[in-house]
Amino acid sequence: MLPLVSLTLFLPLVGAVLILCLPKPTARTVHGIAIVSAALTLVGALAMWLQGVSGDGFSQVEELEWMPAIGAAYRVGVDGISLPLVLLSAVLFLVSFIYTSSLRDRPRAYVALILLLETTAIGTFTALDGILFYVFFEVSLVSMYFMIAGWGHEDRQRAALMFFIYTLLGSLPLLLAILGLYLGSPDPTFDMRAWIANPPLEGAAAMWALIAMLITFAVKIPAIPLHTWLPAAHVQAPTVGSVILAGIMLKFGTYGLVRFALQMTPEAFREAGIVVLVFGVVSAIYGAFAALAQTDLKRLVAYTSVNHMGYVIVGVSAAALTLDPAVRATALDGAVLQMFSHGLVTGALFFLVGMIQERAHTREMGEFGGLLKTVPLLGWSFVLAAFASLGLPGLAHFPAEFQIFLATLGTTPIAVVVILGIAIIAGTFLKALRETFLGEPRDRWNKMPDLSPREILAVAPLLVLTVATGVAPSWVLDVIHRTTSALVL
Amino acid sequence: MNAVLLPILPPLIAALAALILRRGGAALALAGVALSLAGSLWLLAGVVDGQAQPLILPGLPDMPLRLVAGPMTALLSVAVATVGTFVLIYAVGYMKRESGQARFYAVMSLFLATMQALVLAGDWILLLAAWELIGLCSYLLIGFWFQRPEAANAASRAFLYTRSADLGLYVAVFMLIGSAGTSEIAASLDAGVSASTAAGLLLLLAAMGKSAQVPLQDWLMRAMAGPTPVSALLHSATLVAAGAILLIRSAPLLTPEALFAVGLVGGITTVAAGVIALAERDLKRLLAASTASQYGLMLIAVGAGVPLAALLHLLAHAAIKSSLFLAAGDFQHAREGTGFDQLKGVGRARPWAFAGFALAALALAGIPPLSGFFSKDAVIAAALSAPGAVWLVPLALAGTLLTGAYMARALRLLWRGSGDTRPVAGTGWMRAGIWGLAIPAAGLGLAFGPLETMLDLPAPETAGMGAILSGLVAALGGLALGWLVPVKRLLGPAHQWAESGLVVAGGLTACIGRPAMAVARRCDRLEDHLYAAALGVGHAAVNLARGGERLEQRLYLAVLGVGRANLAVGRWVRGGDERGIDGLIFALVAGVRALGARARTLQSGLIHHSLAISAVATAVLLAILFSASLSF
């Protein structure tokens, strides 16, 4: 039996090492190695998908001794909550390498950084050991920091710093919480499975641990008011950086919210659930309004992420608050699917905005007009992604948001006001589409080329998956539901 | 294959094929809709024999999607397919000179497929999904000429209005699923208890958006910026009809209070939109306002507790309004516009289209023995039998009177005067489309008897001659007024207000749109403040760190360690002769050194403090781990 999880996890790292060890590789070789390792990683992720998960606890667990004296070990595995995120990571990183394969500006370091990031991303989702999780969670920051600082736009240094400081300081409370869980365990261990099976903390200790986790994850998700790094980072980050930041790294926060906050301190979460719910509702609506005011396409997409992640917070808190296992399963199904869908849709949107910027060197909506006529493929792809993002049925966000709202109404009826967000986001995207893609084409952009094969290869898989997830969500939901329906809190 | 898929799949496949092949769109769409019509007739025949035909598709966990054909839904499916068939036949002529054919026929086919799915939906989720998708299709069709700013605006407005109102359907569906424990529509209806008034009002809100009821009527008039076959389809059997269909289907769930609200909204709309129609200067916009007015009548019937009457009027209206629009498109091609100024006397120049238009106009006014007479009679009888008859009957009669008046006015304006008429390409196709729908518009009333038997819904208590006579008097009076009296005299001081669409308090844009944008801008400003605040916190942290001299010393040591590590990494990376990252790392190291002698700038200072803190934290962690491991 192959250790599938570990293979998938470390394949990108092997690629990165290979790239760094080769003496003076050409850009072609570098990109070739990156694409091959990412493709193999995707094969690994698909193999994991075929293996599937059992409803009970974690599957495909792989374990190695590491620091037995303190109960820390190399432990990886997946369940229905993490497996879709692993698949999402493998897909998004592969298309990112395809997109980035035209880069000639220091490709070696750039590609190695992204490969390192892929390992840390998959590691974060598969780690079953507190220390291992924290290491992956932290190391990902370094790669992203250098990506923004080294390959970003005009004001990149400042944005990279903002991002780094925020998320780094933000993650310290998680460390304390992890230590707390460790010290609270009757038989001290960093095994996350043990923490989930028997939440080690109670009472005030659990509440403090929860608060610490919530701070960390609120920065990462990001939730109002700890989100200010996000628009700054996105605006300056290179396209692939934005795709990965929004598509994968924001999910570290929401994933942690489920895996740690909900599963390891369930009682405290139930008590504080209303507060978290309010943060989610405010995030979603505030993010939607902030998006509505934007004229820069990339900032606009960045703020829609705040809105969409707000829904995830709402879903997870609904799951914490309810006592009905069926409602909880619905809420978590929605929250996890929302993470998956957001990765696909926002990934596609950031790619498309990046393609516009590459051609026009501006992202101001007011500068464009009639692009649907000038660059039809790019335009229609954007229309599709925009309607997916505003939650149209038949596209990826609808089943997720439907389940989140349904469970919310069943738990805390008043919180269903969060649904206003979908009308505001609709207004946001309609405005963006009207100003950028509809109307009279401008002479300035007459020469703008439509999508190249490389760009189609990057964005088409995401759009296809967006439609597939919207039309037949059961292919993902079956996996998620197997775990969420068996979840005991 | 389950028969219930027959009306849905062919247009869906046609849409995909038209998109992929990029040619032969018209033929594909026609084939698709013809098969869909055959399928729906087959379905109807099956239902008449009493077979229920459920189909369960995978959906959400524990909430599968269901398609079910019952008598009512199969009948509606036939109506959608019939209108769709003739509109598409007409479109072959109408769209002959347009580019973007593949897109047009693909979206029209998709529109028909999703409308079939909406009609045949057996569970709330599929209904909601189809409900939203027809919104997308109308966006794409109204905005078909997206280079024209007015089309782009109209499409955005239509989608935004209906989507906002759709929130009502979302929440209502959540409430219905929550109370029935299943998403099956039949289960909600069979539960025998009515949903809460709140759920009913939310359903009404959703229906008001789609069926353009006051105060959400404005988008419908602007939607005329789309191609005319699109308007014909939107107004008769698809988008706008969806609102009424929703209320007809969910009527058993509505509480008396909700029913009263439905009737009242319908009553107000039928009068207000009728007045707007009367004052319109553009034929298509007149027809659009008329649509809102007619759906108001249907809502009156639902509110009166007789959804059957609403359904009959929906069917009659579908045939009538689509033929009116198709004829209007014929005039539009003949005169290059739809303003009444341009259309003077066009009726004489295009007699075939005008005859179809006149027949449908009289049917809409409610002249026997045309279909509208029977359906309007049913609506008035329903209003008479309702508890709120005092309100509903005068409103329904006023709506009927206005219908006669604006249709007569339109006929007069189209018949009198003269203008230059151009030859029209594709007349044959267009004529076929118009008459294919004008004939049912005229004769559908004959089928109402058997339909009522088949539907087996409670009919209005026969109010006898009262309803028939009052309706007839209102219709004839309206026709006479509209033909004889100029509209300015008829409406008097209200004319200008009506011409501007009876806008109250600046309309929805002023009441909701602008405040929403204001909130958005305020959020954006708040964003700037938050960002500044975050930077400020960063500054403060640096200052705090400067305060502790001893801490500083230790930090320095820790930082130096990190710096050395960085230096090593830097050397290693330099092997790869990539200066950028080198430079970066060296800058970092230099910054680290500088920090020891106090960071001067915020930027270099902050990050190294953070690095330091993380290093210290790591050290603490390791110390704890170490001591923990010692204690075992």
From TrEMBL, chain A:
<feature type="transmembrane region" description="Helical">
    <location>
        <begin position="131"/>
        <end position="151"/>
    </location>
</feature>
<protein>
    <recommendedName>
        <fullName>NADH-quinone oxidoreductase subunit M</fullName>
    </recommendedName>
</protein>
<feature type="transmembrane region" description="Helical">
    <location>
        <begin position="109"/>
        <end position="125"/>
    </location>
</feature>
<feature type="transmembrane region" description="Helical">
    <location>
        <begin position="163"/>
        <end position="185"/>
    </location>
</feature>
<dbReference type="GO" id="GO:0016491">
    <property type="term" value="F:oxidoreductase activity"/>
</dbReference>
<feature type="domain" description="NADH:quinone oxidoreductase/Mrp antiporter transmembrane">
    <location>
        <begin position="129"/>
        <end position="421"/>
    </location>
</feature>
<dbReference type="InterPro" id="IPR003918">
    <property type="entry name" value="NADH_UbQ_OxRdtase"/>
</dbReference>
<keyword id="KW-0812">Transmembrane</keyword>
<feature type="transmembrane region" description="Helical">
    <location>
        <begin position="72"/>
        <end position="97"/>
    </location>
</feature>
<feature type="transmembrane region" description="Helical">
    <location>
        <begin position="300"/>
        <end position="323"/>
    </location>
</feature>
<feature type="transmembrane region" description="Helical">
    <location>
        <begin position="377"/>
        <end position="398"/>
    </location>
</feature>
<feature type="transmembrane region" description="Helical">
    <location>
        <begin position="404"/>
        <end position="430"/>
    </location>
</feature>
<keyword id="KW-0560">Oxidoreductase</keyword>
<feature type="transmembrane region" description="Helical">
    <location>
        <begin position="274"/>
        <end position="293"/>
    </location>
</feature>
<feature type="transmembrane region" description="Helical">
    <location>
        <begin position="335"/>
        <end position="356"/>
    </location>
</feature>
<feature type="transmembrane region" description="Helical">
    <location>
        <begin position="6"/>
        <end position="23"/>
    </location>
</feature>
<keyword id="KW-1133">Transmembrane helix</keyword>
<keyword id="KW-0472">Membrane</keyword>
<feature type="transmembrane region" description="Helical">
    <location>
        <begin position="242"/>
        <end position="262"/>
    </location>
</feature>
<comment type="similarity">
    <text>Belongs to the complex I subunit 4 family.</text>
</comment>
<dbReference type="Pfam" id="PF00361">
    <property type="entry name" value="Proton_antipo_M"/>
</dbReference>
<feature type="transmembrane region" description="Helical">
    <location>
        <begin position="30"/>
        <end position="52"/>
    </location>
</feature>
Automatic annotation (TrEMBL), chain B:
<feature type="transmembrane region" description="Helical">
    <location>
        <begin position="463"/>
        <end position="485"/>
    </location>
</feature>
<feature type="transmembrane region" description="Helical">
    <location>
        <begin position="167"/>
        <end position="185"/>
    </location>
</feature>
<dbReference type="Pfam" id="PF00662">
    <property type="entry name" value="Proton_antipo_N"/>
</dbReference>
<keyword id="KW-0472">Membrane</keyword>
<feature type="transmembrane region" description="Helical">
    <location>
        <begin position="391"/>
        <end position="411"/>
    </location>
</feature>
<dbReference type="Pfam" id="PF00361">
    <property type="entry name" value="Proton_antipo_M"/>
</dbReference>
<feature type="transmembrane region" description="Helical">
    <location>
        <begin position="28"/>
        <end position="48"/>
    </location>
</feature>
<feature type="transmembrane region" description="Helical">
    <location>
        <begin position="6"/>
        <end position="21"/>
    </location>
</feature>
<feature type="transmembrane region" description="Helical">
    <location>
        <begin position="432"/>
        <end position="451"/>
    </location>
</feature>
<dbReference type="InterPro" id="IPR001516">
    <property type="entry name" value="Proton_antipo_N"/>
</dbReference>
<feature type="domain" description="NADH:quinone oxidoreductase/Mrp antiporter transmembrane">
    <location>
        <begin position="121"/>
        <end position="402"/>
    </location>
</feature>
<feature type="transmembrane region" description="Helical">
    <location>
        <begin position="258"/>
        <end position="279"/>
    </location>
</feature>
<feature type="domain" description="NADH-Ubiquinone oxidoreductase (complex I) chain 5 N-terminal">
    <location>
        <begin position="65"/>
        <end position="105"/>
    </location>
</feature>
<protein>
    <submittedName>
        <fullName>Proton-conducting transporter membrane subunit</fullName>
    </submittedName>
</protein>
<feature type="transmembrane region" description="Helical">
    <location>
        <begin position="230"/>
        <end position="252"/>
    </location>
</feature>
<feature type="transmembrane region" description="Helical">
    <location>
        <begin position="68"/>
        <end position="92"/>
    </location>
</feature>
<feature type="transmembrane region" description="Helical">
    <location>
        <begin position="104"/>
        <end position="122"/>
    </location>
</feature>
<feature type="transmembrane region" description="Helical">
    <location>
        <begin position="128"/>
        <end position="146"/>
    </location>
</feature>
<dbReference type="InterPro" id="IPR003945">
    <property type="entry name" value="NU5C-like"/>
</dbReference>
<feature type="transmembrane region" description="Helical">
    <location>
        <begin position="611"/>
        <end position="630"/>
    </location>
</feature>
<keyword id="KW-0812">Transmembrane</keyword>
<feature type="transmembrane region" description="Helical">
    <location>
        <begin position="352"/>
        <end position="371"/>
    </location>
</feature>
